[in-house]
Specification:
Length: 520
């Protein structure tokens, strides 16, 4: 956030675009209100560099202005890191990933006699992210509440871009800021950087005060290494076992665990191959992260993916059609058990095929909070040939892959042929017609709720939030882990409300009064 940096310029232009679009975009207004209600928290101490930035653009330090600054800061960084990832994938020479060529071709189609309108850079960035979603891990480039800026350029054609002045100065300035980011990324070759490039940039662009103000606390690598060593997470024996960080933040523990997992996997390359290893890693959730904040989970996914790039490249070389739909990092409240009624978030009801979980997603809609019916795992096992929770989770991933594609295309109909095809991506030797028959009513229900979500928020970008809530409900409440590690957010019990204290004491076992040498 130093004066004159390209990132500061992007943040400032993001704030201007936010002001320009707030009353124009139904999605932005809804998403921002949801973010304020669910996640916004005024920092105990506002960083001095935040004050300088706000003063520079004439913003008074009220709570509302502070929240707007924080939301735009997270939005700008989410966009910035997606572009870093796209460029890094090109530099590592992943097959069919051409950041530079894509930018050039897109700009060429929009330019006129060598003149490149500023809007072209924003339109090109939007198209690049959509292209990367299809070629890499879809969940990393999927729309979320921080992707609101895309709406500003959704209906602008190449011919419109040539007459860009009539479309609003904030849109032009935001495009100009993106051009600066893209030109700067051209200068870097991320394949030459030793270690974790995003981690290095994270430390540079987000100083300690900023991270703390955003609710993040950095765990030193020495501490991470010590804890993973202490629980025995190393060597070939960790393959196929599960590790969980229930409060993963920006992913420090997950990234180091991933490095160890990939190193151990090199011992079984000849036997399995990289495509199978990475499918097992992600689809069978061998390394899992939860966090309650959407920005933290986004950052964790980015860091995870950057470490995964070399192995992902080998998997794509071995199988040209290789692609992962999601990384096992989810936005959820680790302390909520959706299998119990005491949280008042989930109740067991009766659906056509038996009992189902009725999940209160917390997403506000006009008729109240959005509730979704989710198959109850005992009914799944009783009515299909899925023998366990692991395969139920795999099947539910296939359902989400199918219905999200339909929602993106705005057809809102379940394509049973695609549903069966997706089941076969995650499972083997099953009664496919039986699975399709059992899950189709749920898929139709999901699509109806996605349509309701789009009508309420003006966009479908919150579908990823629903998917996280539902998939995490299985991973939290039905799955056991071999390792649970992390640096959780420490809270003084004296500061908690009485009813929260009583709930925690009743629901969880705690240890106190240990000798200092054994405490930890």
């Amino acid at each position: 956030l130093k004066e004159g940096s390209i990132f500061v310029n992007l943040v400032q232009r993001t704030i201007s675009l936010f002001d320009f679009e707030l009353e124009r975009s139904k999605f932005l207004k809804s998403a921002y209100d949801f973010w304020k209600i669910s996640y916004a928290k005024k920092p105990e101490k506002v960083p001095e560099n935040w004050r300088r930035r706000m003063n520079k653009i004439g913003l008074e330090e009220t709570e509302e202005i502070l929240f707007k600054f924080m939301f735009c800061l997270e939005s700008a960084y989410s966009l910035f890191t997606r572009l870093i990832l796209a460029k890094a994938c090109e530099d590592y020479k992943l097959p069919d990933i051409d950041f530079s060529g894509f930018i050039k071709n897109q700009i060429r189609t929009i330019s006129f006699r060598g003149d490149i309108p500023l809007l072209a850079w924003a339109i090109t960035t939007k198209n690049l992210i959509e292209s990367m979603k299809q070629r890499l891990v879809k969940s990393v480039f999927e729309g979320d509440i921080f992707y609101w800026w895309e709406d500003s350029y959704k209906d602008i054609s190449a011919s419109d871009a040539l007459y860009s002045p009539k479309l609003g100065k904030p849109r032009l300035q935001f495009g100009e800021a993106l051009a600066e980011i893209i030109f700067t990324l051209y200068k870097f070759d991320f394949s030459e950087i030793v270690g974790d490039p995003l981690g290095t940039l994270y430390q540079r662009y987000f100083d300690k005060e900023t991270r703390k103000a955003l609710g993040e606390f950095y765990t030193p690598l020495e501490v991470v290494t010590y804890i993973l060593d202490a629980v025995g997470y190393e060597g070939r024996s960790i393959l196929g076992k599960r590790l969980l960080d229930p409060a993963c933040g920006s992913g420090t523990f997950l990234v180091e665990a991933l490095r160890r997992y990939l190193k151990a996997s090199e011992q079984v390359i000849e036997e399995k191959g990289w495509p199978e290893i990475l499918k097992e890693l992600c689809n069978e959730y061998c390394i899992v992260g939860f966090d309650i904040h959407p920005f933290a989970t986004f950052m964790a996914q980015m860091q995870f993916m950057l470490v995964l790039i070399p192995a992902y490249k080998r998997a794509m070389e071995e199988d040209p059609h290789f692609v992962l739909s999601r990384l096992p990092i989810f936005r959820t409240d680790s302390l909520v058990d959706e299998t119990k009624g005491e949280t008042r978030r989930v109740t067991l009801e009766t659906f056509e095929s038996g009992q189902y979980l009725l999940i209160d997603t917390g997403l506000p809609v006009e008729s109240g909070n959005l509730q979704i019916q989710m198959p109850y795992f005992k009914q799944v096992i009783a009515n299909t040939d899925l023998p366990n929770v692991e395969e139920y989770f795999a099947a539910l991933q296939a359902v989400f892959d199918t219905v999200k594609e339909s929602a993106w295309q705005e057809t809102y109909d379940v394509d049973t042929i695609k549903l069966e095809r997706n089941f076969k991506r995650y499972l083997t030797d099953k009664n496919w017609s039986g699975l399709v028959s059992f899950f189709t009513p749920y898929a139709e229900h999901f699509l109806q709720k996605f349509k309701e979500l789009k009508e309420t928020f003006g966009d479908g970008k919150l579908i990823k939030s629903l998917e996280d809530i539902m998939l995490a409900a299985i991973l939290k409440n039905y799955v056991k882990y071999d390792f649970v590690v992390g640096n959780p957010p420490y809270v003084r019990v004296q500061m908690l409300p009485k009813e929260v204290n009583e709930y925690l004491r009743k629901s969880y076992k705690t240890v106190s009064g240990l000798h200092p040498k054994t405490r930890g």
